[in-house]
Structure formats: C-alpha cells, structure tokens
C-alpha cells in the first residue's frame, strides 16, 4: 500500500477550521412571547450552540426593516429591527458569544435597500435630489417599463413611481430598490457602515446577492422569443463583466483591514471564475456560496437524487479550488427546502439519511455551514393550503399561475416541496405546544413533528442526529487532514455510493450510501486491512457488514501510514 501521503494543501487559518451555524433569527427562539424570535432568544441558547461544537454564528439580517422580504429589505443599516430587540441587546449578544469562544457573522445586504430607507426616500423625491443617482432610475418606453428584464421574484425588475414619472430597478422585491454601484458617493456610505460594524467587534459577513451589483451597460432588452412582456433571465444583472472591480473596491476599503471571515453569495459564478473571488492573493472574499449544486434541489422527488451529477458538481468545486481558494460547504440554508426531505428519506430512513448527508458534505475541503434545525434532521412542513405560506416569492409565483389558469391544488403541488418557508418554520426545542419556540402564537407554524423531532429528546439520546453532528464536528476538529487534506473522488461510477478520500499527514475514506437499498462496496476496503472505523451512523456504531453499506449508511475510515 502506498502510504507516502502528501502534506496539507492549504495554509492554516481560524476561518478554515471554523464550523458555522446559521441562525434565522425570526424562527430561532422567542424570549418575550410575541411569536417572533429575537436576540435575547439567541442569547438564551448560546450554551446549546457551544455544546454542539460550532464556533461561528451567522445571523440572517437583524437590521431595521419593514420586513417585506423577512429582513433583506433594510431601512437602517445601523439599527436593529424592533421585532428582534435593540442595539444594546446586540452588544450583549456579541459579548456573551465572545465569552464562549463563538464569533458573530452578520448578513450584509449591499445590492439593494428597502424603499423606506432614507436614502431612497430622498432619491425618489425629485430628479434633482443629490441622492437620485444612488439608485437606478430610468424613463419608461411608450408607457412601458424601460426594458423586459424579470426579477428574481417572478415580476418585472421595474416599478413605476408617479412622483417623478420614472421607473426604479429592483432585482428582488418591488420594495427592494437596487443601489447604484456606479455612484462612488453611495459606495463610500456603504463602506462607512461596514467599518462601523467591524469596529464594533463583528467577526465577519455573509454578503448577500453580491454577484448582482453590476448591471449590463445600457440595460438592453433580453431576447424574448415567446413574446413575453418580461424575460425570465438574470443575464442582465448577474455576474456581469466588471463586477470584480466593485468587489475589489469594497474589499480594499473594508474587509482587507480586519481579521474576519467573509462569504459571498455568488449566483452565476462558475468554478473557473471563483479563484478571482477567493484566491488569497486577490484579497477579496474568503469563500463563496456557489449555486451550481442548488439546481439539484429541483430534482423530482419521485425520481430521487441525481447522484452522478452531484458527484460531478461537488468534485468540480473541490478540485477547482484546490490550492487556489476555499469552499463553503453547505446543504441547507434559509432559501432552500430541508435536505432530508429533498435528498434523503424523511420517513423510513429519516435518521440514517440525515446523518449520511451530513457525513457526505461535512468532511470535504472547506468550511462547513449548519443551518438551524439541520442538526436535528428537521423536515419540510406538511403544507396543505396556500395561505400557510409567508414567502413573497411564493405569493408572486402563485399569483402568476392563477393568472395562467392554474387551479389552487395544482399550484400547491408545484411549490410545496421547494418553497423557502420549509426551512423557515420555527426551531423545534421540545415536544410541547409550538415546540418550545414561543409561549405566544408563532409567526409561522411549527412543524407538527416537533413531538418527536426536537432538541430536548435528542440531547439525551446518544444515537440521535444531534449526537451524530457533535461527533462529526469533533472528528473534523481533531484531525487537520479532514480540514486541509487533499480531496479525491472514489467509486466515481457507483450508482448508490458517494465516496472520497482526504489525504495529508493521514488518509481518510468517507463512504456514503445515498439510496434506500443496500450498496455493494465493490471491495473498496480490500487494500486497507488496517483501516480504522472512526465514525459510522449505524446504531450501535458498528457496520453490519464490511462489504455492504446498509440503506443510507455512512462510514469514515482512517488509514494509518506504515
């Protein structure tokens, strides 16, 4: 056996060794009984998060907002939404987190603001206002919008404003006007705000929708062969040539002067383009959330996961950034449905599939992100009516489909499994009414399965999904090879098993059966007689067979060098 292992492939830093826990504040923990999660609720659960083993907390937006898009429409970048508390509460959260060795990452929304932000209120007041050019305004064409672009939220990117008889651009909700990054005064104001938070002690940012800040020069119409009034394409406002000039200017004037973690949400950025965003020499972001794997979330559940495609996508990013950058590893967030209901089996093999998927992504090269409730195996919500949804994008889509003649049941069936609200239902702390999230009426209904999927029951169960995540975090922490080692795909053609090795001072083999049938390992371990089982998700901790993986079984082996 060849045991001449290569050394680690990346320089050691704290943010590469971190484990990030994403908190959706509105749904995490309510401290005052108003049905909405808040900062004091987060403070009350810091000991739980420390015990879990995570080291960084990413908070979805907590800034002052009219809440059209659940906080991503910001009306004051230096204030706290009243639902969540006060700036004093945030300062206490920051202090209490730091006491426990937990860092705080804020969600930074720089593509757009709320239409209630004072900047936009001034901008819309007249065509000669000094802040007019801080946003993107255009005249209409023959009584129609300036062009035929469609927003991310399934409507025109343009909203007419009668005050000045002109249209403003909004790539997202009509209450989220896009900031004009061509205006240097606007950018300078954003940079001042960013430095204010960093000087306060914030440990970094996840930067929202940042690949949309550059628009196609001239704002030309997109081709519309079907004669649509708006064209469902982001080609005019996603990862446009020249966007890196803005990114580099942002980073040089803010992030580069602090020891922080930065993660860009980079829709449309390919693996070939990614080094320009995250290469250490570029001094831009530390890592990116890539969107290529998100296409696999749309897979029809009746046909299962496209495992071959998943291997290709994840391996392409692993090898593409090897030695050139760093991956952000994730399978859930606030914008996508629950992974155990999407890639796994949330009925017969709920525990097994939740832990197998965790093993699959967590031990690749990169910094792993856990979305709240993922560590419990939380599932999609059993929606039965369109009125149960809160998401603005879902309401826009439902309206469109009604106009196209769809029936209510057909609309529900088309959106139920992929709706963002699946991941936004409140955290399930215990088996009581409303899952221990609130003593009041929750803003979004708690999943009924909180009766058996909750923190309290899993904390006392050594075989729980929660306990497995704790072991997974410890394993990665204790073995730098699982952080920095080289990634190589194994069993590329296997129709059921995603397998790979991590190699540096040690060698690890990760094996995950992502199907509901036993999987033959094809003698994978035949050459590794001295392999040591470090982690497995079978109850009792031992595999039933060395050569066969049970449905949704996962194992991690260490190969000792001679």
Q: What can you tell me about this protein's structure?
A:
The structure is a single chain. Helix 11 (350-362) packs parallel to helix 15 and helix 12 (392-403) crosses helix 13. A hairpin with a 6-residue loop joins strand 14 and strand 15 (497-503). Residues 299-303 have low confidence and may be disordered. The protein has helices spanning 14-17, 25-28, 39-44, 46-52, 87-99, 118-123, 184-200, 243-253, 274-278, 307-320, 350-362, 392-403, 408-415, 455-459, 465-478, 481-484, and strands at 20-23, 56-59, 63-64, 76-80, 103-109, 137-138, 158-161, 166-169, 204-208, 261-265, 287-289, 328-329, 367-371, 486-490, 497-503, 507-513, 519-520, 532-536, 548-549, 554-559. It folds into four domains: 14-111 and 184-220 and 230-380 and 420-471, Glycosidases (TIM Barrel), CATH 3.20.20.80; 118-169, Oligo-1,6-glucosidase, Domain 2 (Oligo-1,6-glucosidase, domain 2, Alpha-Beta Complex), CATH 3.90.400; 386-416; 486-559, Immunoglobulin-like (Sandwich). It contains 16 helices and 20 strands. The radius of gyration is 24 Å and the shape is globular. With 562 residues, it is an alpha/beta fold. The strands form five sheets. The chain has an eight-stranded parallel β-sheet. Strands 14-15-16-20-18 form a five-stranded antiparallel β-sheet. Strands 6-8-7 form a three-stranded antiparallel β-sheet, with no helix packed on it.
């Amino acid at each position: 056996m060849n045991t001449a292992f290569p050394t680690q492939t990346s320089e050691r830093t704290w943010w590469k060794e971190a484990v990030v826990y994403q908190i959706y504040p509105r749904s995490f923990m309510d401290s005052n009984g108003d049905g909405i999660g808040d900062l004091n609720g987060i403070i009350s659960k810091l000991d739980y998060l420390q015990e879990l083993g995570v080291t960084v907390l990413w908070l979805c937006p907590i800034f002052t907002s009219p809440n059209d898009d659940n906080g991503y429409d910001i009306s004051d970048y230096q204030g706290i939404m009243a639902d969540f508390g006060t700036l004093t509460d945030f300062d206490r959260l920051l202090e209490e987190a730091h006491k426990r060795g937990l860092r705080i990452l804020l969600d930074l929304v720089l593509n757009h603001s709320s239409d209630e932000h004072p900047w936009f209120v001034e901008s819309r007041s007249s065509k000669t206002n000094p802040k007019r050019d801080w946003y993107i305004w255009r005249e209409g064409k023959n009584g129609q919008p300036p062009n035929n672009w469609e927003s991310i939220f399934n409507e025109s990117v343009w909203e007419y404003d009668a005050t000045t008889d002109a249209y403003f651009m909004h790539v997202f909700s009509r209450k989220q006007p896009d900031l004009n990054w061509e205006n240097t005064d606007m950018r300078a104001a954003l940079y001042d705000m960013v430095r204010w938070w960093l000087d306060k002690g914030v440990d970094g940012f996840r930067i929202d929708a940042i690949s949309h800040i550059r628009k196609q020069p001239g704002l030309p119409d997109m081709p519309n062969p079907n004669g649509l009034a708006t064209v469902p394409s982001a080609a005019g406002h996603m990862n446009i040539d020249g966007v890196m000039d803005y990114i580099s200017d942002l980073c040089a004037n803010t992030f580069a002067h602090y020891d922080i973690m930065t993660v860009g949400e980079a829709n449309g950025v390919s693996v070939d383009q990614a080094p320009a965003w995250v290469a250490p020499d570029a001094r831009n972001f530390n890592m990116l959330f890539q969107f290529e794997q998100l296409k696999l979330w749309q897979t029809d559940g009746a046909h299962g996961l496209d495992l071959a495609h998943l291997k290709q996508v994840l391996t392409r990013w692993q090898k593409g950034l090897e030695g050139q950058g760093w991956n952000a590893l994730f399978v859930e967030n606030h914008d996508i449905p629950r992974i155990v209901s999407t890639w796994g089996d949330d009925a017969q093999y709920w525990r097994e599939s939740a832990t197998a998927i965790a093993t699959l992504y967590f031990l690749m090269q990169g910094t792993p992100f856990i979305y709240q409730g993922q560590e419990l195996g939380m599932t999609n919500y059993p929606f039965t009516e369109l009125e149960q949804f809160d998401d603005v994008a879902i309401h826009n889509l439902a309206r469109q489909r009604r106009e196209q003649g769809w029936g209510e049941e057909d609309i529900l069936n088309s959106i139920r499994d992929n709706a963002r609200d699946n991941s936004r239902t409140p955290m399930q702390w215990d088996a009581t009414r409303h899952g221990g999230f609130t003593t009041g009426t929750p803003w979004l209904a708690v999943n009924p399965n909180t009766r058996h999927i909750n923190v309290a029951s899993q904390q006392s169960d050594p075989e729980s999904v929660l306990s497995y995540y704790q072991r997974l975090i410890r394993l990665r922490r204790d073995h730098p090879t699982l952080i920095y080692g080289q990634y190589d795909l194994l069993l590329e053609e296997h129709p059921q098993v995603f397998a790979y090795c991590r190699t540096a001072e040690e060698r690890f083999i990760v094996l995950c059966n992502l199907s509901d049938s036993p999987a033959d390992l094809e003698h994978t371990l035949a050459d590794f007689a001295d392999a040591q089982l470090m982690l497995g998700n079978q109850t009792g901790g031992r595999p039933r067979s060395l050569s066969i993986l049970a449905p949704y079984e996962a194992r991690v082996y260490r190969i000792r060098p001679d």
